[in-house]
Write a structure and sequence with these properties.
The complex is a heterodimer of chains A (177) and B (492). In chain A, 55% of the residues lie in helices and 0% in strands. Chain B is α/β, with parallel strands linked by helices and 492 residues long. Chain B contains 14 helices and 22 strands. In chain B, strands 1, 2, 3, 9, 10, 11, 12 and 22 form an 8-stranded mixed β-sheet that branches. Chain B has a 7-stranded antiparallel β-sheet with strand order 7-14-15-17-13-20-16, covered by helices on one side. In chain B, strands 4-5-21 form a 3-stranded mixed β-sheet, with no helix packed on it. In chain B, helix 1 runs parallel beside helix 7, helix 1 runs parallel beside helix 13 and helix 6 packs across helix 12. The longest helix of chain B has 20 residues. Chain B starts with a strand and ends with a helix. Classes of the chains: A mainly alpha (177), B alpha/beta (492). Chains A and B meet through helix 7 and helix 8 of A and helix 2, helix 10 and helix 11 of B.
Amino acid sequence: MTNSNLAQSASRVGLGNDHRKEPPFFFSPRDYENLRAFAARIIPSGSNIEEDPGASEVGTVNYVDSWVLDESDSTKADLRQALEFVDRNCRERFGLTFKDLHAEKQDDFLSWMAVDREGSDFFDKLRAACIEGFYSDYCDPDYVGRTAWSLVGFQGKRISDVKKDWSFLRIYREKDC
Amino acid sequence: MSAVDDQFDVCVVGTGAGGGLIAGQLTRRGLRVAIIERGHFWTTKDFSRFEVDMYRKLWAPWETTSNRELGYEDEIHFAQGRCVGGSTTIFTAVAHRPPASNFEDWHKETGVVDADGRPFSYATLETHYELVERHNSVRSYNELDPGTLRVQMGFEKIGLNLVPSNAYITSACEKSGCLFGCPTEAKRGTMLSYVIPAVLLGAELFYDARAIRVLLQKTSQGVVCEGVEFVASDGEMRQIRAKITVLALGSLNTPQLLMNSNLQAYAGDSPSLGQIGRNMAVNTAKMVFGKFDEILDNYLVKPLPAHCLDLVPEGILFEASSIMEGPLGFALPLVDEADRPLWGHRHKEIMKNYRYYAGIFLNTRDHNNGWIELDEHGSGKFFKPIIPEDRKILERARSVAREALEAAGANDIVETIYLSAHMQGTCRMGEDRSKSVVNSNGEMHDIKRLFIGDASVIPKVIDANPSLTIMVLASRLVDYICKDREAYLAAK
């Protein structure tokens, strides 16, 4: 069994990827890459990524991958099933998984999924997790650059000097070790 | 399993608008009170503007209706606090006294009466409104921010009046994020006004504790409640024995606790028990945001400081302005023209203009047509179909809100999902046992010594922001218990 197969079967039975020191901690490599691509369409980057970063630059996928570890079993199952839905339907329609589609095709797929009877609930859950990741002002521990609060202009009294404690996320706990 | 103590006079479950007041006031009157709260005991020093952290610590995960299972298109999303103080720790502090007309139908609905047996009316509650307003520093909030003044101008242009509303806020307000707990204690709520004073006077507070069921006993006087079983913060199952038990977990959770308590095994099937979890109204609401030419910074304000009462006769109450006080709360509920969640470039453009938006919160006086069921795991499922009568009110409210924003000069308008923090009516009070769960005093028809002290008891939907009315009903319940306290406390 390869490492990625091991990780996949471990996460399928709900163990997460406990042995790892770096993401993905929860998702299988395939789901993780598809989620990264999904987040990049929900919160796209501008043409100047320093001025106008999106989910790709700050690492929103890593927020979701760490955050979900402490969520309920049903939330975990929902997100896994949602990403399985994305993979299965993309393969059926395009013969490729989501991350390998062109951005335009990805947007077409998401527009369909967002109103599909079976897909819309999955879409809403993935979208909400990505938006929470990005607009919480999360960024990866090694990221240097603009983040959501600066992008939207959320600042001022009791905001600019807030100490953001990310220790509820495993990616930050590993960093501190 | 261990009993904590069998000497408590009262066990109160929940510390929100209802439970917090009841625990505090009964302690002040000399009763020995135990308090069970599902959330954590965060206090003022913990309340920062780190939005995601505060949502995680102070808010319950949002609940959503299952209307689509019944073939209805729209879901409604429910917000609640989960912390000491409940939703009053995270509310926008609107202290709304409903117009007297709101109470006119209560007696007709369930036969509810006042202490002298006369039909229940606004007059039944008037002295309690005055008392609770004093306890909670209620005043007219006159310091309107630029966003609210903008929206006010729009309302004026279409012939409607947006005027300052009352708030539970002292003059020390620093406009620092009501939704994430007030960092200055200018905003009052049950934590400050009732729960902390109760603890200082000897009440025992069990937080991070989850009530599992009420403890029942068949006696010669009928079925009697003897306390509550709960999972304590250390994970241990424990029991509190009390002469009087008051449930105030909120309109979504109080009926679930009752449904999980196997009441029928003790009390048999009765029309009253069949009413548990029914008749839910929620003030189905939506926010409509307008983008303006100038920076408004509508997150550095006291949210919803003003309201428009002109359309209350039509079942619509507008409040303004707010943009949810943080980018995350603003970003999540946005929808497109087809009411589907927004994403991609359009969503990001809106977010990049966050500082330019102001918003109208539209509350509707919807119908008591919702209900709660348990799934196979004993968890609640919520149904509140948007029926044609409610749809008509919502559409009218939406179009007036958009018109007001356009008149105010908005150059872009965007709406949110349907949402609510005003769930009510799931264990109504009344004298007609086929239409109510508790009697006019708040005690269950079929189970003695078991009271309900939250928004569940409201017989017919009130027009908006029920927190003040919940506290007022709780204050009335305290008076009732104290009047008859010897009878309750003496008996075994």
